[in-house]
Write a sequence for this structure.
């Protein structure tokens, strides 16, 4: 059963944009917080701020990202967009596992490793402590920027018959 009501499609589109904006904005803000923590804080302040990063991922970014993905599944099943009908939609679905890897393996697990390292060996700061965390956060921002760009630009989109004549 496909969604044909334009009002329902508008609500779906708006909610998808809002949750994606929360996801992207949250990652950007937490990247800024991490940058600030690694380059501008002393050890005691860092040990107070750094645990907030995974906590905010869990409480803000995770629900927004899961809701965005669920909305993408709804788009795929219940609208004419489909999952494999358009190349740009396939690119977005291929990007999701990359984001999951950058978040789970990269940012979250690495921040815990850095916190443990700081507790045992002291705080150096900068790229010495935060390089890998900042690298994965930057990768998340770049992948999400790519996904947003292809959502807006829709490359490889098939030209309509009316436009080609």
């Amino acid at each position: 059963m496909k969604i044909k009501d334009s009002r329902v499609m508008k609500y779906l589109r708006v909610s998808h944009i809002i949750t994606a904006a929360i996801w992207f904005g949250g990652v950007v803000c937490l990247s800024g917080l991490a940058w600030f923590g690694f380059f501008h804080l002393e050890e005691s302040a860092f040990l107070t701020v750094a645990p907030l990063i995974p906590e905010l991922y869990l409480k803000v970014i995770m629900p927004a990202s899961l809701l965005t993905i669920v909305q993408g599944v709804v788009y795929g099943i219940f609208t004419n967009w489909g999952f494999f009908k358009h190349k740009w939609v396939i690119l977005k679905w291929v990007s999701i596992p990359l984001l999951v890897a950058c978040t789970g393996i990269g940012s979250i697990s690495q921040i815990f490793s850095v916190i443990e390292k700081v507790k045992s060996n002291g705080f150096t700061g900068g790229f010495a402590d935060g390089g890998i965390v900042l690298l994965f956060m930057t990768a998340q921002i770049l992948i999400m920027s790519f996904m947003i760009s292809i959502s807006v630009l829709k490359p490889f989109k098939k030209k309509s018959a009316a436009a080609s004549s």
Q: What stands out?
A: The two ends are 33 Å apart (CA to CA).
